Amino acid sequence: MKVEGKVIKLGDKIDTDIIIPAKYLKYTDPQYLAQHVLEPLDPEFSKKAAEGIILVAGKLFGTGSSREQAAIALKAAGVKAVLAESFSRIFYRNAINNGLPVLVCQGISDVVNDGDYVVVNLESSEVLIQGRDVGVKCKELPDIVLRILSAGGLIEYLRGLKK
Amino acid sequence: MTGQTLTEKILSRASGRKVAPNDIVEVSVDLVGFHDLTGFHVIEVMERIGREVIYNPKGLVIAFDHLVPPPDVRSAEIQKLVRGFVRKHGIVNFHDVGSGILHQILLENYVLPGQVVICADSHTSTAGALGAFAQGMGATDVAAVVVTGKTWVTVPKPFKVVLKGSLRKWVTGKDVALEILKEFKSDYFNGMSVEFFVENPQSFPMDYRATVANMGVEFNADAVLFIPDDETVRYVKVERGYECGKVLPDPNAEYVDEYTVELGNVDLLVAIPPNVDNVKSVREVSGLDVDLVFIGSCTNGRLSDLEIAAKIMDGKRVKSRCVVIPASRKVFIKALELGYIQTLVDAGCVVTFGTCGPCIGGHFGVAGPDEVVISTSNRNFIGRMGSPTSKTYLVGPAVAAASAITGKLSEPGDVL
Question: For residues A30 and B382, what is the distance between their CA atoms, to the nearest angstrom?
Fold first, then answer.
């Protein structure tokens, strides 16, 4: 399972109030949420992500609230994966449950530049940067997580098991 | 043989096997809960799963707090939807508009030492004040708990914090939480459970413990647990009229590390926006002009917070806007009886109860562009309390009350 796209790079502690402000939490429609993703940081973010991008971030991506809309909004906006130094516990679970790949990649921000085109192999957890002879090895995902991601989320995964 | 920490003891009991840090285990959940703003999402997930059954109806707690009272039609619609679910399934532990904030309701009525508590809200960590293993989770995870009575957790690495001595006047649990954030920053405890040992139980009452445990999610700790002691038993007895047992770690339990807070050395502190761990002493930033003061939330909306605010504001008038929101109806009524509410209203504060209000920028006094907010709540992220250009400074109740009186960030000594 591979995902790829142009990199948009963010810093440390991108919190859930930045990812999707509380005023949008009265709805769960992915397209509605996608329009407002990361709005406080960059009101144009949603347009930039539409072509399909990979987010690279620093420490504690998704710190803050339990709002599952944070993961839903990122995925619906076109974010194919989030590669970060570390994640908050709740966001990490929410992302997997919603089929958004999240990889812990130490040192990723030092290697990958904004605008790089990267290919992420979820099975091997390797990130290849196109046009540059470098790659990054991230922490491997357990098999169960890969199966959930491949189904598109936890609910879809469980539905598949029932059949 | 090595003994078990409180975290390991609880998760071993709940998983039916002896656990060690980093194990991923399935645990049975004693209490599961949600509020209005996450509740409709949990119900939606249950509908999508196609299994709208409740594994343990008595272990499900629902309290409306985020959209209370509903500020718009959609909020009223969300609550109507959740009420329909409550009726359909005959949920007994339902707390409608006019009750209180979920985390406070859980402390007052439900949580016991040694339990596993999972709610659809990050500040579920608050329940750790009573020695429970409490985690916030998203709507999908919580829906799964409602349906199956179980979830999976990674057993966190245990860290020990000792609280020693006594706090100085006006210094409270909030300052201790900020002291820890100042010392360790917000990423150090990611993946750990922090177990607090209070050397002298009376020196750090339940209200303060609740504040620290509440802020545990701002430490990014997996869980925060106060080791049950005489203060735990006293609190449950006063609130509920019965004696609770203590679940304790083994004396020879091993922790990855240990840190001691000398309570007498803790200063009045403030977290500078937009990070909870950008902590300075109030003295270093005093004099800052203030537009709005908020005293309340699941962090600092308890009786001791209102008592401190009333003592400082007694006989004075506020210079900034001031909103006060006791965390529950129970707290509000006690504060009424003790005269605190009268004092605060006389000083010019707007008072309501049992809502998250402006803490999440929802309603009841949100911040306008470029405004400065002094708040006893838990987050100072960009736009958290209103406009993206507003700035929220996090403090304890004494600094908040003093700042409302002077209209500038102040210490209690500046007004008394």
Answer: 23
The dihedrals phi and psi of A8, each to the nearest 5 degrees, come to -110, 125
Distance from the B360 Cα atom to the nearest Cα atom in chain A, whole angstroms = 6
**What CATH number should be reported for the domain holding residue A102?**
3.20.19.10
How does pLDDT run across A82-120, given as a tens digit for each residue? 999 999 999 999 999 999 999 999 999 999 999 999 999
Nearest-by-Cβ selection for B186 from A13, A17, A26: A13
3 state DSSP class of B89: helix
Q: How many domains does chain A have?
A: 1
| pLDDT confidence of residue B362 | 87
Q: Does B190 touch chain A (CB under 8 A)?
A: yes
B174 touches B267 (CB < 8 A)? no
Instruction: Label residue B119 exposed, middle or buried (CB < 10 Å: 0-12, 13-18, 19+).
Output: buried
Question: ipTM of the assembly?
Answer: 0.96
Are A116 and A5 spatial neighbours (Cβ–Cβ below 8 Å)?
no
A vs B: CB pairs below 8 A:
97
Query: Residue B352 CA to chain centroid, in angstroms?
Result: 18
Query: What is chain B's pLDDT, residue by residue, as a tens digit (416 residues)?
Result: 789 999 999 999 999 999 999 999 999 999 999 999 999 999 999 999 888 899 999 999 999 999 999 999 999 999 999 999 999 999 999 999 999 999 999 999 999 999 999 999 999 999 999 999 999 999 999 999 999 999 999 999 999 999 999 999 999 999 999 999 999 999 999 999 999 999 999 999 999 999 999 999 999 999 999 999 999 999 999 999 999 999 999 999 999 999 999 999 999 999 999 999 999 999 999 899 999 999 999 999 999 999 999 999 999 999 999 999 999 999 999 999 999 999 999 999 999 999 999 999 989 999 999 999 999 999 999 999 999 999 999 999 999 999 999 999 999 999 99
How do beta strands B150-154 and B24-28 pair?
Answer: antiparallel
Closest Cα in chain B, distance from residue A60 (Å): 7
The superfamily (CATH) of domain B269-414 is Aconitase, domain 3 (3.30.499.10)
Residues 127-146 of A with CB under 8 A from B: none
| CATH architecture of structural domain B7-263 | 2-Layer Sandwich (3.30)
A66 and B191 in contact by Cβ < 8 A?
no
Closest CA to A19 of A10, A29, A7: A10
Range of the domain at A55: 2-162
Domain(s) of CATH 3.30.499.10: residues in chain B: 7-263, 269-414
Contact A63 B220 (CB under 8 A): yes
Mutate to test the interface with B, among A28, A65, A87, A145 (most CBs of B within 10 A): A65
Is B141 at the interface with chain A, CB within 8 A? yes
Chain A CB within 8 Å of residue B65 CB: no
Q: Which of A26, A41, A66 sits opposite B122 (nearest CB)?
A: A66
Distance CA B245, CA B115 (A): 11
What is the C-alpha separation between B350 and B251, in angstroms, rounded?
48
